[in-house]
Write a structure and sequence with these properties.
Blueprint (H helix, E strand, L loop, with lengths): L2 H14 L4 H12 L5 H36 L4
């Protein structure tokens, strides 16, 4: 098949699939997905909260140290 014919066939297929099949495809993909169990979701949520809190405290500490350096070096105390 020549490239021009291939492109025309792709356009025809795309125009046929625009209606409700888009949403049917989405629902089909969601059904094929592997969803975590309730225990996995709970455990991963707790891990995200803990890691986020640790990173927040680390960034607060680094920001405080840089702020102190700026005050001491730039503003003279």
């Amino acid at each position: 098949m020549r490239p021009r014919e291939l492109l025309q066939n792709q356009r025809q297929d795309a125009s046929r699939n625009q209606g409700g099949s888009f949403f049917r495809d989405i629902i089909g993909e969601l059904r094929r997905s592997t969803w975590p169990t309730r225990e996995e979701a709970t455990r991963l949520t707790i891990m995200v909260i803990i890691v986020g809190s640790i990173m927040g405290m680390f960034l607060w500490l680094v920001d405080s140290i840089f702020g102190l350096f700026v005050r001491v070096l730039v503003l003279g105390g």
